[in-house]
Specification:
Elements lengths: L5 E5 L4 H5 L12 H14 L11 E6 L3 H10 L26 E4 L16 H12 L7 H4 L7 H25 L9 E6 L1 H11 L17 E6 L7 E3 L8 H15 L1
Parallel strand pairs: 1-4, 2-3, 2-4
Antiparallel strand pairs: 1-5, 5-6
Length: about 260
């Protein structure tokens, strides 16, 4: 039995991610370096013998923001249908069709709404709060949220809704299926730094207010799964092995040919 996984991918580098400006609803393009790095990530981690196996993807979720959608394009997953925002002549012909997974644009995985703090750095936010409230101007998004934007409770509500959908529609059925012939077990989410860190926290049932000490760099990839093949035991997968079935089968075939 295959234990399902959820792969979380943060969009590639932008000018604001370089200088630390909080980017929620603003639309920014990836930098040239950001695009190169995402292409390299796709070559390294996407494939039949890699971490993310396209044929094992049941569904792909992507944020509405352009930087997230461009990141998905550059990963070269190889969807059979064109991506929802693409025209026919923009289809990904480089990778070829490698997955039946549908791509869904969802607001549930958009970045945290920073409200009044949109476009500001943490240092600028602390200085603003120092002038408003006195003291050292301390600010913790995990407990304070964002004035004019979202609170931790609002973020939790939409993430819990998405996690429940993933487990009901994809991961639960995959766990109940036989090892061979069952539905694809994995899902892929392409989104943003704060929201994906919050997603990982809620995946394992922890509170955002506990201030999770998690880092997901621009273009970074994380893996979430379950212990003991039980949907009731979600876990963060700190490290995993690559798929080696193809390599092992090829080695077996070579051995058989040598014995003929």
């Amino acid at each position: 039995m295959t234990t399902p996984r959820a792969f979380i991918v943060r969009h590639g580098e932008t000018e604001w991610s370089i200088n630390g400006r909080h980017t929620g609803t603003s639309e920014l393009a990836l930098t040239q370096n950001g695009e190169r790095r995402i292409r390299a990530t796709g070559r390294a981690l996407v494939g039949d013998d890699r971490l993310i196996v396209p044929s094992k993807l049941a569904h792909i979720y992507v944020s509405p923001r352009t930087r997230a959608k461009r990141t998905l394009e550059l990963l070269r997953i190889g969807c059979k249908e064109r991506l929802p925002w693409q025209q026919h002549d923009e289809m990904d012909g480089e990778a070829g069709p490698r997955t039946d997974a549908k791509v869904e644009i969802t607001e549930d995985i958009r970045e945290w709404d920073y409200g009044d703090y949109e476009g500001k750095t943490s240092a600028e936010i602390r200085e603003e709060r120092r002038r408003q409230f006195g003291g050292d101007g301390s600010w913790d998004i995990w407990t304070d949220g964002c004035p004019g934007g979202e609170s931790p409770e609002q973020v939790t509500e939409r993430l819990d809704r998405l996690i429940a959908q993933i487990r009901e529609r994809y991961h639960g059925p995959a766990m109940d299926a036989p090892r061979k012939g069952g539905p694809p077990p994995d899902v892929l989410l392409v989104a943003h730094g704060h929201i994906l860190r919050a997603f990982a926290v809620r995946w394992v049932g922890k509170s955002l207010r506990d201030n999770p000490s998690l880092i997901l760099e621009a273009g970074g990839v994380g893996t979430l799964s379950y212990e003991h093949h039980r949907v009731e035991e979600p876990a963060i997968l700190l490290g995993g092995s690559f798929v080696v079935e193809l390599a092992e089968n090829a080695a077996d075939d070579d051995g058989k040919d040598g014995r003929k």
